[in-house]
Write a structure and sequence with these properties.
alpha/beta; Rossmann fold; 2 domains; 7-stranded mixed beta sheet; two-stranded antiparallel sheet; about 35% helix; globular; binds S-adenosylmethionine
């Protein structure tokens, strides 16, 4: 069977199966391309419409099994093929960590312009999971030292593997810590993507998300428990000119309501996404009272 025919057929099956597309693609055709190309290690530069590639019988067996898993157990493609893309970079991905998809990628690619006065020399990726945010930052800012923090040692093992893959291990450390509990230094930039899905929202998530570690998604107190702690503690871990960038997703309205006096800057994204705020170290100090 030709590559193009297999992708068409798979996209049709995906569309009929009423899958949810929320892990790197937003439609059945892109999802089919992702599964087939990553599943067989085909270069994404190869345009399937014009490709003369014909799939062999062993290749078809592999792909048929992948398609079956995607449809029957609703596993996300990233876990099936073991890889996800973030900031144009491939990351090893498995059930030890969430699948990279944060809109913070766009900020990293724009080097956090115009938020940062100068390139950061120290960066903390708080709640790093498989390390995608911190490692992509390390590659954008080659002078910076980067700490990846997570409470889960299993996530950190994956993060270390990803750091090795991208050749950043001489500048990137992976540390197990409950938020800032094991941190004893300050950073020019803290980027955080903590769990922020409220208990109520958890109940309405499509089955694809239930393959992800629950401790990476669910959070108490309307999804705000960890974000609030990060906001309250960040001033002690930022340099004088430092900034905190944090994603809270759909909990953005609840956070704004809760901290109506805090001057959070809500960022806009050209390529989609919402619920990411920024605040300077100085503002966190000045508006400390607003955080209580
Ligand atoms: C939403 S995931 C973010 C993963 C990754 N940064 C990304 O953007 O794809 C949240 C991560 O926070 C970690 N986490 C949960 N509670 C934590 C805590 N108290 N301290 C540090 N990390 C925590 C989880 O293990 C999970 O890896």
């Amino acid at each position: 069977m030709r590559l193009a025919d297999y992708i068409d057929k798979t996209a049709e099956l995906f569309a009929k199966a009423d899958l949810h597309f929320g892990h790197g693609t937003d439609n059945a055709v892109d999802e089919a391309v992702y599964l087939v190309y990553s599943g067989l290690g085909i270069d994404f530069a190869e345009d399937f419409h014009h490709s003369r590639r014909v799939l062999s019988t062993p290749e078809l067996h592999i792909l048929d099994e992948f398609v079956r898993r995607r449809i029957e157990s609703r596993e996300p493609v990233a876990y099936i093929v073991g890889e996800a893309w973030f900031c144009g970079l491939p990351f090893f991905t498995d059930e030890r960590a969430l699948i990279p998809r944060s809109p913070i990628a766009e900020l990293i690619e724009n080097r956090f312009s115009p938020l940062l006065a100068s390139p950061p020399t120290s960066i903390l990726d708080m709640c790093t999971g498989g390390g995608c945010i911190g490692i992509a930052c390390a590659l954008q800012f080659p002078e910076a030292k980067v700490d990846l923090v997570d409470i889960s040692e299993a996530s950190l093992e994956l993060a270390r593997k990803n750091s090795d893959r991208h050749g950043t291990s001489d500048r990137v450390r992976a540390l197990q810590s409950n938020l800032f509990s094991e941190i004893d230094r300050r950073y020019d930039l803290i980027v955080a993507n903590p769990p922020y899905v409220s208990k109520q929202e958890m109940q309405s998530l499509p089955p694809e998300y239930l393959h992800e570690p629950r401790h990476g998604l669910e959070c108490e107190d309307e999804g705000l428990a960890l974000s609030l702690q990060i906001l309250r503690q960040a001033e002690f871990y930022l340099t004088a000119e430092g900034i905190l960038v944090m994603e809270v997703g759909n909990s953005d309205e609840a956070l704004q309501k809760r901290l109506s006096k805090l001057p959070m800057l809500w960022l806009e994204f050209e390529f989609g996404g919402h619920g990411v705020m920024a605040i300077t170290s100085q503002e966190l100090v000045k508006f400390r009272e607003a955080l209580n």
